[in-house]
C-alpha cells in the first residue's frame, strides 16, 4: 500500500452540513450579501491587483526580477498567473475559514484518521501557503490557533513520517518565513516528541509512535515488521533544521545514523528495497519503487545536498548513484514513445507508474546540473519525458485529471486499467513537476498544462465546501469522495501559484522544498556542520 495513499490528514468538505439551507431567511440574506461581496473582491483583485503585489521581499528573496517576459508570458502567462493565483486564493480563503472553524457558523471539519491523530493538520500544512499568497489576516488567525490549540501532549499514535513532513515541516517553514518564535518553539517541541521512535536496535525509526508512552511499532502490513524507505528516509531535511534551531546535535545524529545503516547494506542492482527491518538491519521484501513507499527517500538525498549549500558530498553521491540504478533497472520507454518509471518486484518489472512517481520529473530536473559526467542535458531530457508521460496520464482521461496509477501493458499506455487505480485525490506531484520544468526551461507548455489542471480542478473537484477528490477520472460526471487532503493546500495550490509566479519568488538557490512543499532555507556553508 503506498504510504501517501493511506489518506492520512484530511479535511472533509462535507457539502451537506456546509449548506446554508438550514439557516433562517435573514441569515440567508446576510450570507448572500457577504458572499457576493467576496466574489466582487475576488474579481476586483483579478483585474486591479498589480502583478508585483505577490512578490515578497527580504533576506530569502532576490529583490529584482531576473526574467524578461516573453510574448508568450504576456499573452498567456500574465493573465494565467494572476487568474490562477486569485482563483486559488479566493477558494482557499473560503476553505480555510471552513476547515479551521474560523467561520463561526461552519465549525471545524478536520478529519482525524485513526493512526494519525494530531489535530490541526490542515491549518499547519496551510500556514506557509497563506503567507506566500500574502493572506496575512488568515495567517495571523492560524498563528493564534497554533499558539492556543496545537498540543502534542496527547495519548495518540501518530505516523512519524506524516507528522514530520506536515507538522514539523509546516512549522519550520512558517518560522523561517514569518520569524515568529512560536513556530520555532513548537517545531522543536514536536521534534523532541518524535525522538523515542529512534529507540530501535539499529536506530532505524518505527513508523508509528505513541506520543505519550513513547512506544513505537511498525505498520502491521509491512513486510516482516519492516520500516518503510520513504518514511525513515524522509526525516533528514527537517531534522537538520531542528538541530540548527535548537542547538541540539541529536536530531542531526539520528538522521545521519540512518545513512550509516544504509551504507553498510548490499543493494540489489544498486537499488534500495522499500522494506528494512529495524531490529535486524536487514532488507525485507525486495520491492523497489520511485512512487509509494520509496519516493521521497531519493528526493531527500538530493535535497540534503542542496540544503547543505552543496557541502553534503555523501548525500550527493548517494543520490546520483541511486538515480543511475533507477535509470538502468526501472526506467523504460513504451512502444508509443512514452518514458515511464516502472516498479521492481524481486527483479521482475511491473509496468505501472503511480501518480506519486510523477514527482520524479521535478526531482531529476532539480538535480540535472550537479551530476557526474556532465549529464545535465540527458537528465533534463529525461525529466521532460517524464513530465510529458504524466501529462498524458491526465490528457487520456475524461476529466483531464490523473489517475492514482497508470499502466503500460495489456495494450494500454498511461491509462489506469483497474477500477481501484482510477481515483484522483488532489495530489500535487504532476503540478510539482510542471513547476520545476517551467523554472528550468521556461517552455510555455508547462504553464499551459498547469492551467489545464486548474480548469479541471475547478470543473470536477470544486464543491460547495471546498475541493474534493473524485473516484473515477474516466467517468463523465464526478463522484466525489468528499475529502480534501491537507496536501491540497500545502502542495497543489502552492505549486500552482509558483508555476505562475516569477522565478525570484522563493528562488531555488535559497530555498529547498520539503516533500510536503514546505520551503526550508539552504543552510549556508559557514553554518554547516555535517555530523558523521
Ligand atoms: C504528500 O504528502 C507528500 O508529497 C508525500 O511525500 C507523498 N505524497 C503526498 C501527496 O500526494
UniProtKB/TrEMBL annotation:
Active-site feature positions: 162 (proton donor), 295, 404 (proton donor), 429
Regions annotated as coiled coil: none
Cofactor(s) recorded in Swiss-Prot or TrEMBL: Ca(2+)
Transmembrane segments: 29-49
Disulphide bridges: 358-390
Gene3D superfamilies registered for this protein in UniProt: 1.50.10.10
Compartmental location: Endomembrane system
Binding site for Ca(2+): 515
Keywords on record: Calcium, Disulfide bond, Glycosidase, Hydrolase, Membrane, Metal-binding, Signal-anchor, Transmembrane, Transmembrane helix
GO-annotated molecular function: calcium ion binding; mannosyl-oligosaccharide 1,2-alpha-mannosidase activity
Membrane topology: Single-pass type II membrane protein
EC number: 3.2.1.-
Pathway(s) this gene product operates in, as recorded in its UniProt entry: Protein modification; protein glycosylation
Major localization class: membrane
GO biological process, one term: carbohydrate metabolic process
Cellular component GO terms, alphabetical: endoplasmic reticulum; extracellular exosome; Golgi membrane
Pfam families referenced in this protein's UniProt entry, alphabetically: Glyco_hydro_47
Catalysis: reaction(s): N(4)-(alpha-D-Man-(1->2)-alpha-D-Man-(1->2)-alpha-D-Man-(1->3)-[alpha-D-Man-(1->3)-[alpha-D-Man-(1->2)-alpha-D-Man-(1->6)]-alpha-D-Man-(1->6)]-beta-D-Man-(1->4)-beta-D-GlcNAc-(1->4)-beta-D-GlcNAc)-L-asparaginyl-[protein] (N-glucan mannose isomer 8A1,2,3B1,3) + 3 H2O = N(4)-(alpha-D-Man-(1->3)-[alpha-D-Man-(1->3)-[alpha-D-Man-(1->6)]-alpha-D-Man-(1->6)]-beta-D-Man-(1->4)-beta-D-GlcNAc-(1->4)-beta-D-GlcNAc)-L-asparaginyl-[protein] (N-glucan mannose isomer 5A1,2) + 3 beta-D-mannose; N(4)-(alpha-D-Man-(1->2)-alpha-D-Man-(1->2)-alpha-D-Man-(1->3)-[alpha-D-Man-(1->2)-alpha-D-Man-(1->3)-[alpha-D-Man-(1->2)-alpha-D-Man-(1->6)]-alpha-D-Man-(1->6)]-beta-D-Man-(1->4)-beta-D-GlcNAc-(1->4)-beta-D-GlcNAc)-L-asparaginyl-[protein] (N-glucan mannose isomer 9A1,2,3B1,2,3) + 4 H2O = N(4)-(alpha-D-Man-(1->3)-[alpha-D-Man-(1->3)-[alpha-D-Man-(1->6)]-alpha-D-Man-(1->6)]-beta-D-Man-(1->4)-beta-D-GlcNAc-(1->4)-beta-D-GlcNAc)-L-asparaginyl-[protein] (N-glucan mannose isomer 5A1,2) + 4 beta-D-mannose
Function (record text): Involved in the maturation of Asn-linked oligosaccharides. Progressively trim alpha-1,2-linked mannose residues from Man(9)GlcNAc(2) to produce Man(5)GlcNAc(2).
Family according to the record: Belongs to the glycosyl hydrolase 47 family.
PANTHER family: MANNOSYL-OLIGOSACCHARIDE 1,2-ALPHA-MANNOSIDASE IA (PTHR11742:SF31), MANNOSYL-OLIGOSACCHARIDE ALPHA-1,2-MANNOSIDASE-RELATED (PTHR11742)
Protein name: alpha-1,2-Mannosidase
Biological source species: Cyprinus carpio carpio
